[in-house]
Design brief:
alpha/beta, seven-stranded mixed beta sheet, 9 helices, single chain, Spore Coat Polysaccharide Biosynthesis Protein SpsA, Chain A, 226 residues, two-stranded antiparallel ribbon, 9 strands
Length: 226
């Protein structure tokens, strides 16, 4: 069994910003930023892109093949099933959930998140609430993910993966990562879901074209140009 796997969900069929996951910010597509950050930090975790079986997502599979990234293809609408099947296919015991429309994931905080999760023996651990939107992450144990898949029947459970656990806190051991004040900006959107989000992300990517922007730098830049 592989210990920790990073599973990045990606699809081309976004309603508000179609094709966004392969749309460039700076010179690199959003998905490339997520992969690049993981590789730049030489993260020890296995990485898999989880996309759908739809024809429109063939381009994601092709991008992954060209960039030596593992890819799993599953349900287009049932994202929880896609995660559970990816975890089973690669035999992950702990599953980090990232999304391809969050190009500024803080990998240092992700490493701290994973350490906290493992050290405390949590079922689910997240770093949401204080970091900018789109910078945090979450990690499930395989049993917690599988239980969510078995018991989470509501449409929001199938679409959002984490909501069965969040709605049943007494059934799981849940942890939350604390982050330093300099990285706290919970109202700042560093996710990409709209054209305005994309323009902000493109500005940030171009501001630091020779490296990966830190969370602190992104907060400072956005404050300057607000």
């Amino acid at each position: 069994m592989n210990d920790v796997g990073v599973v990045i969900q990606a699809r081309m069929g976004s309603t508000r910003l179609p094709g966004k996951v392969l749309r460039p910010i700076g010179r690199t597509p959003l998905l490339g930023h997520v992969i690049g950050r993981l590789r730049e930090k030489k993260s020890p975790w296995a990485v898999v892109v989880a996309t759908t079986i739809l024809d429109q997502d063939n381009v994601i599979s092709q991008w992954c093949l060209a960039n030596q990234v593992e890819v799993y293809r599953g349900s287009a609408l049932d994202v929880l099933d896609r995660y559970a099947r990816t975890a089973a296919r690669y035999d992950f015991s702990h599953i980090v959930r990232l999304t391809a429309d969050n190009p500024f994931t803080d990998i240092d905080e992700l490493s701290r998140l994973i350490s906290k999760h493992l050290d405390e023996g949590n079922d689910y651990t997240h770093s949401f609430g204080a970091l900018p939107i789109g910078v945090g992450a979450e990690i499930f144990t395989r049993p917690a993910l599988d239980r969510s898949d078995r018991e989470g029947h509501a449409s929001n459970h199938r679409e959002h993966v984490n909501e069965y656990v969040q709605e049943n806190p007494s059934s799981f051991k849940i942890g939350q990562l604390e982050v330093s004040l300099e990285k706290q900006a919970p109202s700042l959107r560093l996710t990409v879901d709209t054209e305005e989000d994309w323009r902000r992300a493109d500005m940030l990517a171009k501001a630091n074209a020779n490296g990966w922007l830190t969370t602190q730098e992104a907060i400072r830049l956005c404050s300057r140009f607000a």
